Amino acid sequence: MGADPGGGEAETLRADEEAPADGQLESLRAHKQKLEATLRGSAPFAPGTSKPAFWKRTYVVDWKLQLSYAGLYVATLALLVAGVALSNVIFLSLVRNVEAARKSGSTATYWWQADDLGYYVVLNVVILIFVGIGMAVWAIVQSHKIAGPVLRFRRALKQLLRRDYDFQIVLRKGDHLVDMAEDVNSLTSGLKAKDLVVAHAAIRLHELASSTPDREKAVELREISDQLSTVVLPRA
């Protein structure tokens, strides 16, 4: 044990007092090595995102979203079938009216009598066009419930890449991926808190560099402060 400037002996730390700091430093070094390894090589799959054989895959992973899209396909198919059935009912009604008129001895002619098959085809095509337009509108309205959130996520990720955390994702009523929006908001809060710690450390190191009489140490502290600043300051 060495003597302190006041003439007394310097008090040394016990082993149990030094252990937490040493353990934390070792954990930090191990984490640094892990991060460096992920930069050099390919990162592993995230949990639950591997590619197993098709018979081992879990196909229902978000039942609310998947049932919603299953309902969309069923409704689209039902609308198509209803359109075809409607065109056939209309044509059958016209044919029956013609037959009834002929049996009653009427000599009146109708616009569809000239070419029954041709008008039948035209009638089906017209109805299917209207059904197709309705199906397209319905699909756009329903897909907007997921396309809208995806657009917001894309914009949010661009802001995160710029280190701009001044936002919060708010979805509309009825939108899908609400839980993902909450996760992104939590991620933003975590990154903001992390950058606050790093920014505080960078400022503190710069202050120490300005106050230390050791010129070499001051230069080293400023370099570390600048390195920390580059990972905190927003990108252009």
Description:
With 236 residues, the chain is an all-alpha fold. Residues 1-20 have low confidence and may be disordered. It has helices spanning 15-40, 63-103, 116-161, 178-211, 215-230. Helix 2 runs antiparallel to helix 3, helix 3 (116-161) runs parallel beside helix 4 (178-211) and helix 4 runs antiparallel to helix 5 (215-230). Among the domains are: 60-145; 162-236, no CATH class.
List keywords for this structure.
elongated
Radius of gyration from CA coordinates = 36 Å
What is the end-to-end distance? 53 Å
What is the helix tally? 5
What order do the helices and strands follow?
HHHHH
The shape, in one word, is elongated
Portion of residues within helices: 55-70%
Unreliable segments (pLDDT under 50, ≥5 consecutive)?
1-20
Structure classification: mainly alpha
> How would a textbook summarize the main sheet?
none
Mean pLDDT, nearest integer?
Answer: 76
> Can you count the beta strands?
0
- What portion of residues belong to β-strands? under 5%
